[in-house]
Amino acid sequence: MSVVKINVLTVPPEQREVLEQRFAARAGAVEGSDGFEWFELLRPVDGTDRYLVYTRWRSEEDFQTWMSGPMQSAHRGGGQGGGEEQGGGQARPAATDSSLWSFEVVQQASPKLG
Fold first, then answer.
1. Rounded to whole angstroms, what are the CA distances from 8 to 16, 55, 71?
2. What's the CA gap between 64 and 87, in Å, rounded?
3. What is the pLDDT along the chain (114 residues), one digit of tens a residue?
């Protein structure tokens, strides 16, 4: 069964737009990765400052392969950061904290067609 990775990002209100723009600018960066199945960026609406970055992978191995290769390239030079540059020319991160949650899919359902 598939695995789900949820990156929980703490994002101050003034950095929300920056974070969303950065993800939009990177559209397509993960879609071609072997084993990639799904991506969603979830904006908080209930008073929390935590965004959820949801990805689904065919296997843990596919996720780890992406983490050690294409993900490193995608996040080099500022990654999910904010718009202001630091001394080295890298943009400052938009998120002030992050943690990664990992899950195995044990059941799933989809809408009935017809």
1. 14, 12, 16
2. 31
3. 899 999 999 999 999 999 999 999 887 788 989 999 999 999 999 889 999 999 999 999 999 999 898 676 656 544 444 344 444 556 788 999 999 999 999 999 999 998
The DSSP symbol for 101 reads: E
Burial class (CB in 10 A: 0-12, 13-18, 19+), 66: buried
Sign of CA dihedral 48, 50, 53, 54: negative
What is the spatial distance between Cα 18 and Cα 1, in angstroms, rounded to a whole number? 34
Q: Which tokens hold the place of 100?
A: 């990664």
Residues 6+ apart with CB under 8 A from 94: 9, 11, 15, 16, 18, 19, 22, 80, 81, 82
How far is it, in rounded angstroms, from Cα 95 to Cα 80?
7
